[in-house]
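Q: Predict the assembly, please.
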Amino acid sequence: MAKYARIASTGKPKVVIIGGGFAGLELVKSLRNAEVQVILIDKQNYHTFQPLMYQVATSGIEADSIVHPFRKVFESQKNFYFRMAEVQCIDTQQRLVETSIGLIRYDYLVIATGATTNYFGDAQMEKNAIAMKSIDDAISLRNTILDNFERALQLDDEEQLNSLMDYVIVGGGATGVELAGALTELRKHVFPKDYPELDFKSMDIHLIQSGGELLKGMSPEASKKSLQFLEEMGVKIWLNRRVKSYDGYTVTLDNGETLITRTLIWAAGVTGNPVKGLRPESILKGNRLKVDVYNRVEGYDNIFAIGDVAAMITPENPQGHPMLAQPAIQQGKLLGKNLVNLHHGKPLTPFVYKDQGAMATIGRNKAVADLKLFKKDIRSQGFFAWLIWMFIHLISIVGFRNRLVVMTNWFWNYFTYDSGNRLIVGKKQENIPITETITHKTVI
Amino acid sequence: MAKYARIASTGKPKVVIIGGGFAGLELVKSLRNAEVQVILIDKQNYHTFQPLMYQVATSGIEADSIVHPFRKVFESQKNFYFRMAEVQCIDTQQRLVETSIGLIRYDYLVIATGATTNYFGDAQMEKNAIAMKSIDDAISLRNTILDNFERALQLDDEEQLNSLMDYVIVGGGATGVELAGALTELRKHVFPKDYPELDFKSMDIHLIQSGGELLKGMSPEASKKSLQFLEEMGVKIWLNRRVKSYDGYTVTLDNGETLITRTLIWAAGVTGNPVKGLRPESILKGNRLKVDVYNRVEGYDNIFAIGDVAAMITPENPQGHPMLAQPAIQQGKLLGKNLVNLHHGKPLTPFVYKDQGAMATIGRNKAVADLKLFKKDIRSQGFFAWLIWMFIHLISIVGFRNRLVVMTNWFWNYFTYDSGNRLIVGKKQENIPITETITHKTVI
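A: Predicted assembly structure:
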């Protein structure tokens, strides 16, 4: 017989939220004064500020400064209950969530499980590539990069050396562009000082994009300028190319060309990450849940989905809203109000997405920003965009302490041309061992 | 046939240093202008500032801020070469170090491998206890503590609850005392806010010390006052008690009494960590290497040992110097000069330990310090000692950026009564699963 998880009932309606990303976090906040019991379930005990994950991966900031424990964020919110657990399935008949710590009953269920890396069914790619969807991924990438150079010191075979020193990034969206830029900065300012024995002229950074432009979804100016910035910084950009296969060593492109690398970063797509137990008709292409304008999952009265996992099909957004922080935050905020209204039988407010623009940083003093201020489009590329990017990200990080630490790091890195966190702590990717055929010449 | 590791020879005598703790780090610095090739081997790519590890374990500071990559520390030192490798053995005949990346030739070898946790042969203890000798240990302890509370939420059986909420620290030296103090502060200021559903009145922190006093080796005032401070803070101190066994759940003391805990922290002793391949006669009790007053390992011309792994038996120090940072730093500094003199056939300077005192922090505004200033003994307990402790530790951390980050954290923690890094990122100890006999009552 299944057990119940132990959560003291407050007698109030139970709003169970699965996932504490941007959407879930905002929903909890929005329910602060509501007469409900808010139960947040997440497999981690912290919220991750995903937009800065690429900086953790490239030794720019501490992992700890972009994650924030839920219990601390909501310390003073009396109706908040947190449970660290994996969700296995939901039982919509019995209104139960089956988790690793037992069953959790809900009156209203909100699915805010976000998105996961989409390998488009390529199991070999999934095995060999590094993704960028979690703090563990970011730390693993950082460790792998540093470890590669330590290992490269032992090689003189050119191809083997390149396999450790070259990087292939697949996907020209914000993550791919930002990673490529950050790696280039490290190649220029940091690595040659750390590894004077290696020749960084031979370190190649490839960025592969299936379409004809980078930062698809942003303005043509942003796409063009980001391409120009990256090319000036020496990134090898492959437009209109797809990766056909990657065995952990050889990357084969769709036109038959090959690249050699032991480190391929997969930033080429995400797919919704819905929970099990929902009727299949509600799951659209891309694994997102079909929701109405109130974020209610089609076919259910009391089940909602917000953020990346939700697809609200409207004439303006025939594919649903972009899978970004802003729609998630706005949906979370509104749903909090709507849940209270729903419970009191009051009319609900339909969701209208307020597009505030998008931005991406490319390197030192270089970013691209498409902003919407007072209903005007402001497009900026270069230093001003970079300042805006820093400002917006800094104020968006949860927790004053984290902001302080990130700011300290940024100032430090900027003025010293140095990034401090070049540590191999924790796991790294086990890439293919160096083959024994390599000549270890006696040079000592 | 064994291969050689690839390190371009500079034609200068090769000083190979195994281990980058306090002693090794100081030796590298001391050789900055020497006409030698300095080769540091360490299995990590960073130096760890061990005295603050307990603060990482208790969520006070980021792990990243007390570790510093060797390559960055010695970025501008031209004669410095670093290799990340595990040392397997040394061949004193051929003057070779056998490592995971191949053979490394030396002209002078310095063993600075420090100490490792001493379980006194108790394999069961080694398996079930958490040690505090590395950053991985500290992170693992932090994760375990936080995870324990998450799991405790699911229990109502009193013994099972206690097994997760109670902590047993074995060893009343600086590590044990500092950890006990920090845990008590968390119990008072932080955990009750994070876990309002748990009753922290029932959280016990036990400190077990085999002798009759805490902080053995410090002044009687320091020992007495630290005991008083900890007792006032509610730590349960067991003097003159030893742990007979620990199966991961039940701690049995030498008088037959038992304590229940799933988290036992073993800070009861360390033992030298010498490399393989040395003649057994040079290895003393406690696994330390017998060295003369120049830190030369007995029986060898060109092999030295410094820091915790070295035992320099003198009339003043019949057991060798205390296994602390200060002797290690001083020996590293002097050996740098002596190696240069040795190579030039000049006379060597014998090592004389300058005892600068010792200190330990117990809690907020509470520390004990025995200082030696201008040959005078200054003993302080309380607020003033605490200020000195902070000042000395802050200026001792390697790297200005790290100092900034640690200081930011300390100020933050002090004024907010909060410690920010309550994250479960990375591995945790797999303690014994909660048994199925526990009643999971339906309370929701």
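The two ends of chain A are 67 Å apart (CA to CA). Residues 325-343 of chain A form the longest helix (19 residues).
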